Amino acid sequence: MDIPAAKGFSTLSSDCDALLERSPAILYATGPDWWRSDPYYVSYNLATLIGATRAQLQSTPALWLEHVHDAHDVEMHLLAALAAGESRIRLYYRIACAEGHVCYIQDDIAVQRDATGVVVELIGSLTDISETQGALAHLEAQVDSERGYRFIVENVSDAILLMDAEGACRFASPSTRGLLGHRPETLHDRGLLALLPPDDAPRVQRLIRDALRHGEPLRMELRMRHRLGHYVWLETCCSPYLNPASERYEWILAVARDITDRKHREHRLHELSTTDSLTGALNRGAYLSCLRSGLEAADHVFQRVSLVIFDIDHFKTINDTWGHAAGDLVLACVGEICRTALRDHDVFGRIGGEEFSLMLTGQSLNDAALLAERLRKKFESVRVEFHGEWLSFSVSFGVAERQSREGVESLLHRADMGLYAAKHNGRNRVHQAPPQPV
């Protein structure tokens, strides 16, 4: 039976209300703030979970949040899912129940939006999965309980992985194959950390060991390598299991779901906010932020940093003669040449209309000048086709090497003075900036 729209809960007839209350379903309906505004509806059995009355929860909705473990993290996960436009959201969290014990809750939320996409209502259906959590932790010992195993696993849509403190897989649910492409039996006794990106594996292993040491649940986002070679983003909820015999936390139960599409959307939004779409370079704000961070990092490792500032000669004439469409083609050409010529860790930014900058870590003044000269020759030789005509252009460069703990503004100013000198001396040349006065 479909759950009615949230606004309908406040106008339920007494017969409908009585029918819902005889249902085993644990239901609620709130506004978009999830237990921070007056709920439209709270079922009696939901209030009973935390030893409250229905009236108390409806008048003081924050009472529910007081019983939710790590409520802030749960809300952050909910807000991220809402921002991503999801219409069905599943939350996992623990609550302090009236009897003094902790319940594991699965909260399935239907999101109601208006015609403009704004969230107006949240309708939740709770399931107490405490028994499921305990049963899954004992799966390896229940090899003779095939019927119980099938019932549990076939009713869980997310991938379930049971692993030890070293990350070795002790159990993988059938849904793992759809997620990672591996048959569950091929993962048994295999180190799951080997499926992580090499630079991320130590962090994840440290988090797992901390969770086991303190007996605390762990929620994290990570990437795992699919059988076909690409990486899949997973949101994982990890619960440590206490071995009654040793009284130590020796296992981690991980429930994982695919959030690759959401991460790609987030990455794309980040790109749009930091990258110049025409040239592929960082925009001014993002570039200056990277420059400041780069100089701070260089101070800790005593690393050289050189700066190159360059712009297109007579760019206004190109626009005036051929139009702005031709100017955009020239700018795009500059961006493509720079992105293909630079190292992965070089930082390339567009800091003005036709003005660009490069931050070169580990490069001396001479190294930077040689790179600038190679780029200058490349720009000088390239031709851009525009409506059957071939446009040529040149570029002038100013180069400066950072001196001891020199600040961003000073380094930028000196490189800019080098560019000014290159322009003054005839353009289409590289000019090294003078050292900073002592």
Automatic annotation (TrEMBL):
<dbReference type="InterPro" id="IPR000014">
    <property type="entry name" value="PAS"/>
</dbReference>
<dbReference type="InterPro" id="IPR013655">
    <property type="entry name" value="PAS_fold_3"/>
</dbReference>
<dbReference type="InterPro" id="IPR001610">
    <property type="entry name" value="PAC"/>
</dbReference>
<protein>
    <recommendedName>
        <fullName>diguanylate cyclase</fullName>
        <ecNumber>2.7.7.65</ecNumber>
    </recommendedName>
</protein>
<dbReference type="Pfam" id="PF00990">
    <property type="entry name" value="GGDEF"/>
</dbReference>
<dbReference type="InterPro" id="IPR000700">
    <property type="entry name" value="PAS-assoc_C"/>
</dbReference>
<dbReference type="Pfam" id="PF08448">
    <property type="entry name" value="PAS_4"/>
</dbReference>
<dbReference type="InterPro" id="IPR050469">
    <property type="entry name" value="Diguanylate_Cyclase"/>
</dbReference>
<dbReference type="GO" id="GO:0052621">
    <property type="term" value="F:diguanylate cyclase activity"/>
</dbReference>
<feature type="domain" description="PAC">
    <location>
        <begin position="218"/>
        <end position="271"/>
    </location>
</feature>
<dbReference type="InterPro" id="IPR013656">
    <property type="entry name" value="PAS_4"/>
</dbReference>
<dbReference type="InterPro" id="IPR000160">
    <property type="entry name" value="GGDEF_dom"/>
</dbReference>
<feature type="domain" description="GGDEF">
    <location>
        <begin position="303"/>
        <end position="435"/>
    </location>
</feature>
<dbReference type="Pfam" id="PF08447">
    <property type="entry name" value="PAS_3"/>
</dbReference>
<keyword id="KW-0808">Transferase</keyword>
<feature type="domain" description="PAS">
    <location>
        <begin position="145"/>
        <end position="215"/>
    </location>
</feature>
<keyword id="KW-0548">Nucleotidyltransferase</keyword>
<dbReference type="InterPro" id="IPR043128">
    <property type="entry name" value="Rev_trsase/Diguanyl_cyclase"/>
</dbReference>
<dbReference type="InterPro" id="IPR029787">
    <property type="entry name" value="Nucleotide_cyclase"/>
</dbReference>
<feature type="domain" description="PAC">
    <location>
        <begin position="85"/>
        <end position="141"/>
    </location>
</feature>
<dbReference type="InterPro" id="IPR035965">
    <property type="entry name" value="PAS-like_dom_sf"/>
</dbReference>
